[in-house]
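Sequence only, no structure available. Ideas?
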Amino acid sequence: MRETKPELSVVVLCYRSGNFAAVFSRQLKEILEKNHIDYELILVGNYKKGSDNQDRTPATVRVLAQQDEKIVAVVREKEGMMGWDMRSGFEVVTGDTVAVIDGDGQMPPEDIIKVYTKFKSGDFDIGKTYRDTRLDGFVRVVVSLIYNSFLRFLFPRVKVKDINSKPKIIKREVLRKLKLNSDDWFIDAEIIIKATYLGMSVVEVPTQFYPNNERSSFVGLATILEFIGNLISYRIRLFIEKKP
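Reply:
I predicted one. Tokens follow.
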């Protein structure tokens, strides 16, 4: 356990990443140390009870944390999906600035530096990427295009290009103000929509998005319908609260 507060807390969503969590953590450590950033890595290796007996992720992140004082393992039985995992990581950060990134290698670890550099260049509340080059397949590209277009139609005040893209870097004080409560994939949209309606500033930088060679995608038809349903529900809620 480290004794000083880090400059940057990086939450890594490692669900079902297995031994790749060690590879990705090493890549992150190298790029952060190369850029002289004092950091902590929060490796979120939550698991589903009874269904993940072959999943090496919880054991992998625990071992990494035991070996390195700059690594914290979050290993809990899942009570939700990606949003719950993200919030469980946010609960233990200690730095004043917080990054979150998927730990599956689709987003290059160098993006943390790109976004953080841009984030620090102005008085921004949130920094993030947008995927201007995608190598993860035609279907995923079309789904993302439809989702982002539908979001901008329902929430015209939201100006970001790519709502779900990570890494996202957020001031810790901003996280407290957002009061996030999504347990599922909607959490990326919740962050940006709430930040927009609170008048917070968001800056984006381009990135390249890679295919996942470690496992199949978790995004299927049910997830897409969930995305759309959440957007409609949230739009109705804001309408009731008289927020255009």
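The CA atoms of residues 11 and 100 lie 5 Å apart.
Hope that gets you unstuck.
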